[in-house]
Amino acid sequence: MQVHISGIGGTFMAGVALLARAAGHRVTGSDQGLYPPMSTQLAEAGIEVFDGYGADNLIHRPDQVVLGNALSRGNAEVEAVLDAGLPYTSGPQWLAENVLAGRHVLAVAGTHGKTTTASMLAWLLEDAGLAPGFLIGGIPGNFGVSARLGEGECFVVEADEYDTAFFDKRSKFVHYRPRTLVLNNLEFDHADIFDDLADIQRQCHHLVRTVPGRGRIIHNATEPAIDEVLAMGCWTPREAFGTPSGWQALPRRDSATDFDVLHAGELAGAVNWNQTGAHNRMNALAALVAASHAGVAPASACAALAGFAGVKRRMEQRGEAGGVVVYDDFAHHPTAIATTLAGLRASFPDGRILAVLEPRSNTMRLGIHRDRLATSLAAADAVFVYTADLAWDAAETLAGLSDHAALADDIDTLVHAIVTAARPGDRVVVMSNGGFGGIHERLLSALANH
Predict the structure, then answer these.
(1) Distance of alpha carbon 201 from alpha carbon 230, whole angstroms
(2) Under 8 Å CB-to-CB from 143, ≥6 apart: which residues?
C-alpha cells in the first residue's frame, strides 16, 4: 500500500511515517519549513518529502492519505484529497487501527514531561528485554528514532491532548485505548483549541473512560486538577506517585541528581543518573510505576534509569564555544521554563545561567501565560527573549526582571546581545518548541569568533 502523509514534519506524524515504512508500506509525505531533528530522521529513513502542499504531491494517487492536525480546510492539499475522493484518515486513527490493536498500550499523558517520561518508559521496557514498540514526540537518546514497531507486546505512546484533525476535534489520546495510563500533570495550555482547564479535563475524562478494568491508571498525587478528572468517574485500579502512601522519590543529600525510590514508605530501589531537576524525578517515578504494570521489577527499573540517555531537545547540550556551554530545551510553558531552569541551577549552583526564550506556541504568542513569564525566568542571571509575532507587550510583561532582560525581534540582534553578555563558564539554555531559526549553531559560531 502507498501511504502519503500530509504534515509529515511534525513530531507525531514523522513517527507515523517510520511505523508505516516499517510495516512495509511505501511512504511519501509533504510539509513546509521542516527542521531537525524530524527532517533529519525522515531523510535518514529515505522517505521522500515534498516541499509545500498541493495536488501535485498526490499525482501518484496514494491508497491512503494521513492528514496531520496542522492542516485545515483551504489547504491546497486537503482540498485536492477531498476533490479526488481519496481515502483519508488522521494520524491517531491510523496508529490505532494499524499498530495498537491487540497490543499492551502504555500511554503517557500530561501537560509537561510526556516526551521524557515516555522515553524513560520505553527504555525501562527495552532494558528488561521486552522489545517494546513506541511513538514518542521526540528522539530518545537510547534509540535514535522517535518511533519503531517493536517485537514485543508492549507499545509506548506519547498521549497528546491536542486535537486529532480538522474533521475530528477530539483529543488524539482518545484513539489509543491504553491498558496502562500515566497522568503526569495537568495545566491549562493550547489556548487555540481549549477554552479553559475544565475543557482539557473533560477530554482527559474521556481518556480515563477508555482504560479497561484490568488496566492501571498511574497518577500524580500532587496535582489537584488530576484528582478532579478522576472524580468525574474512574473504573480502573489506580496507583499514585508523589505521596508517602504511594510512590516517592527522595533526593540524596550527597548528590544533585541521585535519589531513592520508596513505595508505601519502604525502599524500592536507588537511582543513580545524570538527569537534573525535581520534574525529572517525578517523570522517573511515573515511568517506573508504569513499567511495573508491564512486569518490570521496580529495583530493576531503578537500576536501568542509570542508562537513560535523555531526549533530543530536552536539556540537550548542543556544544561549547569560548568556554560557554549551550543547551537546547523544548520548554515553552511557564511551568516547564521554571522547572528547566531550576534543574540546571541545582546542578550548576555557583555559575551564571543565561536563558534564551522564543515564546512560539500559540498559547504563548496569544499572551495567555504572560503574567507568569517573568516569575518563571527569575532563576536565570540574564534573560533574552525573541519578540517577533507576539500579541502582547513583552517589555511591559518582563519589566520585573529589570536590567536582566534583553528583547529583540531579530535573531541576529538577539545572538549579538547574548554573545556580548556571555563570558567563559556561563551556561546558555535556549528554550523553544520550534527551530528558532537555527539559533543554536549561529550562537555557537558567534561565541567561537567573539
Answers:
(1) 9
(2) 122, 123, 126, 134
- Domain spanning 2-90, CATH class: alpha beta
Q: What DSSP assignment string belongs to 303-318?
A: HHGGG---BTTBSEEE
Per-residue pLDDT of 370-384, as tens digits, reads 778 878 888 889 889
Q: Is the peptide bond before 244 cis (omega within 30 degrees of 0)?
A: no
Most confidently modeled of 79-93, 268-282, 298-312, 386-400?
A: 79-93
Read off the pLDDT band of 388 (50, 70, 90). Answer: confident
- What are the start-end ranges of the H helices in 275-388? 278-293, 298-304, 334-347, 362-366, 370-376
Is it the case that residue 103 has pLDDT exceeding 70?
yes
Would you say the C-alpha torsion 317, 319, 323, 329 has a positive or negative sign? negative
Q: State residue 196's pLDDT score.
A: 86
Hey, what's the cell of 62? 496514494
Round to whole Å and give the CA distance between 39 and 345: 32
Which neighbouring-strand residues pair with 406? 384
Contacts of 222 by beta carbon, 8 Å cutoff, 6+ apart = 242, 243
Domains in the chain: boundaries: 2-90, 102-307, 316-449
Residue 356's alpha-carbon distances to 79, 223, 363, 417, in angstroms, are 39, 29, 18, 11
Give the homologous superfamily in CATH for domain 102-307.
Answer: Mur-like, catalytic domain (3.40.1190.10)
Helix or strand holding residue 105 (H, E)? strand 104-109
| Percent of residues, the chain, with pLDDT higher than 70 | 99
* Tens digits of residue pLDDT in 217-238: 999 999 999 999 999 999 999 9
d(C-alpha 359, C-alpha 413), whole Å: 17
CA angle 312, 316, 319 (to 5 degrees): 125
For residue 176, which of 140, 149, 209 has the smallest C-alpha distance? Answer: 209
| Residues 421/294, Cβ–Cβ less than 8 Å | no
Fold exhibited by the domain 316-449: Protein-Tyrosine Phosphatase; Chain A (3.90.190)
Helix (H, G, I), strand (E, B) or coil at 82: helix
In this prediction, residue 191 carries a pLDDT of: 65
- Which range in 155-169, 335-349, 404-418 is most confidently predicted, on average pLDDT? 155-169
- Grid cell 542508562 is found at 307
The grid coordinates of residue 30 equal 509533504
Note the pTM of the prediction, 2 decimals: 0.84
Give per-residue burial for 15-47: e unless 16+ CB within 10 Å, then b. bbbbbbbbeebebbbbbeebeebbbebbeeeeb
Residues comprising the binding site for ATP?
A: 110-116
Known binding-site residue numbers: 110-116
